[in-house]
Amino acid sequence: MNDSPYNKLPNDIKRKYKIVYSELLCDNITMFKNKDEKWGVLSSNKKFGLFNFYDFLIKPIYNSVGFNKDLKLIEAVKYENNIWNQDNNTYFYFDLDGKLIWKSETGESVQIDKLGNILLNKANKIGILNKDFTQRTETKYQRLNALSTSYFKAFQYGKYGIINKDDVIILDFEFEEILNVIEKNKVIVKKNDNYYSFDFDNNSLTELPFTKILNASSNTYKAPSTESLKYYKSIVDCKENEDYDDYNLEMIRYQGKWGIINGAGNIIIPNDYSFVDFLRNPKYFKVCIGEIEVVDYEDDDENYITSIKNVKWGIVDINNEIIVPIEYDWIDEVESIVWVVYKGGTVFYNDDYQEDYWTIKNAKLGVYNLTKLITPIEYDVIKKNWFRIKDYIFVQNGKNYFDDNSTEYDVFTLEGKKIEANKPKPKDYTYYG
């Protein structure tokens, strides 16, 4: 059974309306693009109870069409002279009966956020619309982001404040920063370089002990997970080196004691570490101890390399219990609770084309499954693709990269059993995207 929503219209309907692309939006409603590069919407109904009859819900006169599933609204856009320009486009919103709900005036555009709030942008100022597109607040803010269904973070005259949907000021416009997560009806704010937890219940501010708070981020591919985005990295006694201003270099840009906090400012992982990093699995964190020393040098090919030394790495869980001892020179997450540990070698920042991550070279590696070391730490390379392993652990020596074609490799189960006879073949355990 084909569950794809794309290009499901009958061939005679495609020919009749010269359709080159279509997408089923819901039930009997399909948006489409025709040979003239114009977009419209079709609806289908049973005729005589026997077959589908298709007709225009929205005629194909638009340059683009979209659909908001939450509010069940169809957005259509006309470009002036067929050239996209946010300020010159005309935006139309229709209900599922094809009735026009709202049409923009010149210089107006609308954004519907993930909470279903409708924000109107007019002359680079933003306000809130009701669900029927009538005006709820003035368009007077330079930035406006929903913190919840009730509260918005607003930016005006160079400062942030908090308003509700009726434009009542909840927190005065005195703050340099307001973070995006409300936890236990509290949110973290920053004023005069100090962080506070703002309590919506009693409108009080409680100072927090951190000198720097950063959004959840990770050196690990496809991390952090969505679940981790409710947390932040926190630093006490932070010293900043602005020479390392790249997003991926926060480990060496900010020196201090790192930990993890939630959106209310409560400590999840104490500030005991030289660095803390999120993983794909939101229940675990990669941590290091020691004083990070940065070494910049040129390699034999005259490439400029940034490396670190003097730290040891381990894994802790969300209760700060040590899962992998903090004694290794580097660690990679390769599955939910499977980690590659390294001894020796050089940890460096790989900024080759389309790379941009920290890694290690010239080290010996082994593998942990949760708290158990399941291979000896004696190998040069491990088979990974898309930075993951699949079902087995394939390892080799004498190579810079794992060689799928070589018969010289060891293979272990995830329980740590070494397979000697009838070894699985590495090529059979590969992810393809």
Automatic annotation (TrEMBL):
Superkingdom classification of source: Bacteria
Originating species: Flavobacterium bernardetii
Stored Pfam families: WG_beta_rep (PF14903)
Protein name as annotated: WG repeat-containing protein
